[in-house]
């Protein structure tokens, strides 16, 4: 669609041109930038618009005054562009490439808003072409899909681990130092292993715990009361108390034994999740004696005796 400084009519000659300029800085090994700009299957921007978007993408990344090539691919269900540029500019200077991935994501989001394109808010598994991915990417998406499908039906991390194991996915924990405190989680299928956050940011250990807690609370809020209304509460204990009082008030209540037992089960599950999240250590070793529970009680007792005198 557009080039600068290379012979676009023959890909072999184009490669030679890129390499020739790279030799101005032979010490720069990774001298070529390759970015892919993908569009939603329903979007069909004009070639002029696509070229403008790709050119702005390079410029905002600071990749200027250098060779580049913008290629349009329509061989898949979604239109996409390959943007290739030389990281050694026309004057032989090296173009900075630090945090290119992060900056490229931000620039793409800006361009998406400016041109009113459909944003990639989440992974759309129905639009994912696994056959076009390498083995490493396929493994990552296999884990992503397995977690996405199982998480909504899990009540704890251990429940998720068991379900993933049945699909050939192993789970490993990262602990803090020599303690049993869990800091992170990773998943492995075949020879490929990924941190939870590499699968998706919401699949870090903390993210999974949060999702499980939210899912269990949603189950509690969806238990019906006598009037078939949701029992709103800010804690599992409060929800359980409400259902228990309704059940005692009227043995013929529409709150069935099934709903009662379900709330009790969810209450136990929520406590288990909170235990995994918090795991407090009850110790006063690090406190001055007067601030410990025993010291505080003795202090109050002495003050009480003084008032009696």
Automatic annotation (TrEMBL):
Positions of region (Disordered): 226-255, 284-309
Comp. bias (Basic residues): 242-251, 297-309
Domain MobA/VirD2-like nuclease: 3-117
Superkingdom of origin organism: Bacteria
Protein name listed in UniProt: MobA/VirD2-like nuclease domain-containing protein
Annotated source species: Niastella populi
């Amino acid at each position: 669609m557009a080039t600068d400084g290379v012979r676009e009519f023959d890909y072999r000659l184009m490669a030679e041109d890129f390499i020739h300029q790279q030799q101005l800085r032979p010490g720069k090994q990774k001298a070529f930038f390759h970015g892919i700009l993908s569009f939603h299957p329903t979007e069909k921007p004009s070639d002029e618009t696509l070229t403008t978007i790709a050119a702005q993408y390079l410029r905002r990344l600071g990749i200027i005054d250098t060779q580049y090539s913008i290629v349009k691919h329509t061989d898949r269900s979604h239109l996409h562009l390959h943007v290739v540029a030389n990281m050694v500019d026309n004057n032989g200077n090296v173009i900075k490439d630090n945090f290119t991935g992060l900056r490229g994501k931000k620039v793409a989001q800006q361009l998406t808003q400016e041109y009113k394109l459909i944003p990639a808010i989440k992974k759309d598994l129905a639009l994912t072409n696994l056959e076009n991915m390498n083995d490493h990417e396929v493994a990552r998406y296999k884990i992503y899909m397995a977690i996405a499908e199982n998480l909504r039906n899990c009540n704890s991390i251990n429940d998720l681990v068991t379900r993933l194991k049945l699909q050939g996915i192993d789970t490993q924990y990262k602990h803090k130092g020599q303690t049993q405190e869990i800091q992170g989680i990773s998943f492995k299928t075949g020879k490929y292993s990924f941190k939870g956050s590499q699968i998706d940011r919401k699949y870090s250990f903390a993210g999974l715990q949060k999702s499980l807690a939210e899912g269990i609370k949603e189950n509690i809020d969806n238990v019906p009361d006598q009037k078939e209304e949701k029992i709103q509460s800010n804690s599992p204990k409060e929800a359980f108390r409400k259902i228990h009082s309704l059940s005692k008030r009227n043995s013929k209540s529409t709150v069935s034994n099934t709903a009662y037992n379900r709330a009790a089960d969810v209450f136990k599950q929520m406590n288990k999740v909170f235990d995994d999240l918090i795991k407090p250590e009850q110790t006063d070793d690090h406190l001055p004696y007067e601030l410990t529970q025993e010291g505080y009680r003795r202090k109050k007792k002495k003050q009480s005796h003084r008032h009696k005198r």
